[in-house]
From TrEMBL:
MF terms in GO: ribonucleoside-diphosphate reductase activity, thioredoxin disulfide as acceptor; ribonucleoside-triphosphate reductase (thioredoxin) activity
GO biological process: 2'-deoxyribonucleotide biosynthetic process; DNA replication
GO cellular component term of the entry, any: anaerobic ribonucleoside-triphosphate reductase complex
Entry protein name: Uncharacterized protein
One protein family per Pfam: NRDD
InterPro entries: NrdD
Superkingdom of source: Bacteria
PANTHER family: ANAEROBIC RIBONUCLEOSIDE-TRIPHOSPHATE REDUCTASE
Length: 56
């Protein structure tokens, strides 16, 4: 969360569960690299992100 600093690993999080802010940044690992935002990803990479399976 860019407001309160809370970190969370919940996928597809749209707001901070601690303070409720929508001012959050998401880190994703794609093709071996960590990236800070998906805003500029092309449609193929966004589809890859949505098709991922989360393993616990």
């Amino acid at each position: 969360c860019l407001e309160c600093g809370h970190e969370n690993s919940t996928p597809n999080l749209e707001e901070c569960p601690k303070c409720g802010s929508k001012h959050i940044d998401k880190l994703q690992r794609i093709t071996g690299y960590l990236v800070g935002t998906t805003d500029r990803w092309n449609n193929a990479k966004l589809a890859e992100l949505n098709d991922r399976v989360v393993h616990n």
